[in-house]
């Protein structure tokens, strides 16, 4: 999962864009989830439970949640 702070975005992503992306991922057999609260916390939880290999982000917020493997994007 990739998270980008709003001030770094070059274009506006709509709810329909998100739904279209999730539909495409599901059609390709890639599971999707919705984080109940903090996206970074959810990503770290997935990494700690070995559901994903690493967490990718442009900032270091995931490290505060204890990311085991971090990829700077």
Automatic annotation (TrEMBL):
InterPro entries: PIN-like_dom_sf (IPR029060), XPG-I_dom (IPR006086), XPG/Rad2 (IPR006084). Pfam families: XPG_I. The keyword Nuclease applies. Keywords: Endonuclease, Hydrolase, Magnesium, Metal-binding, Nuclease. It comes from the Eukaryota. SMART domains: XPGI (SM00484). Residues 26-73 form the XPG-I domain. SUPFAM superfamilies: PIN domain-like. One of its GO terms (molecular function) is 5'-flap endonuclease activity. The keyword Manganese does not apply. PANTHER family: FLAP ENDONUCLEASE 1, FLAP ENDONUCLEASE FAMILY MEMBER. This is XPG-I domain-containing protein.
């Amino acid at each position: 999962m990739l998270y980008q702070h709003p001030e770094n975005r070059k274009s506006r992503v709509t709810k329909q864009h998100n739904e279209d992306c999730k539909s495409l991922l599901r059609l390709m057999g890639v599971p999707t989830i919705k984080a109940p609260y903090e996206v970074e916390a959810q990503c770290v939880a997935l990494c700690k439970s070995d559901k994903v290999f690493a967490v990718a982000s442009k900032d270091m917020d995931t490290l505060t949640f204890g990311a085991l493997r971090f990829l700077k994007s």
